[in-house]
Design goal:
SH3 type barrels; OB fold (Dihydrolipoamide Acetyltransferase, E2P); extended; Tf2-1-like SH3-like domain-containing protein; SH3_Tf2-1
């Protein structure tokens, strides 16, 4: 058992990039959408979501940092593992359009559809499946996903009125 753990650790250590922050650095905080609300399409499924450029206040341990969180996240514990952080490289051309997300205490948020962009029918051998292309809140048009119309209509009937 010990040999297997050692082999797995060395395998992981070779692939993990050394990531270290200093006090005063700005980082992005990783959050994830709620699973089960809606499945994402191939383009947006595995893309990590980061919010808020937060300042590092102190290094708590070898892998944990304390952040200066904004007031809307005051109920969230402010110590995070380094894998939940991404370094922010300042660029003068960056212009942030910040729309506050309503985050839960576990740093998740609910995906909400805004509008239906397109319709089409997917043809199988002996069946036609009506599909709709949905634009989601806090996402670009290129991240719109195709959803099955019947299932989507039962969850969000207000979009079909």
């Amino acid at each position: 058992m010990k040999a297997a753990q050692s082999r797995q650790k060395s395998y992981e250590d070779q692939r993990r990039r050394p990531l270290e922050f200093k006090v005063g650095d700005h980082v992005f905080l990783k959050i994830s959408p709620t699973k089960g609300v809606m499945r994402f399409g191939q383009t947006g499924k595995l893309i990590p979501r980061y919010i808020e450029s937060c300042e590092i206040l102190e290094r708590v341990s070898k892998v944990a940092y304390r952040l200066a969180l904004p007031t809307d996240l005051e109920k969230v514990h402010n110590v995070f593992h380094f894998l939940m952080l991404r370094k922010y490289v300042p660029d003068p051309s960056h212009v942030f359009t910040h729309e506050p997300l309503s985050l839960r205490n576990d740093l998740t948020y609910e995906e909400k559809p805004i509008e239906i962009l397109d319709r089409r029918e997917k043809r199988l051998r002996n069946k036609m499946i009506p599909m709709v292309k949905v634009l989601w809140a806090n996402h670009l048009t290129s991240e719109a996903t195709w959803e099955v119309e019947d299932q989507f209509k039962s969850k969000y009937p207000q979009l079909f009125a």
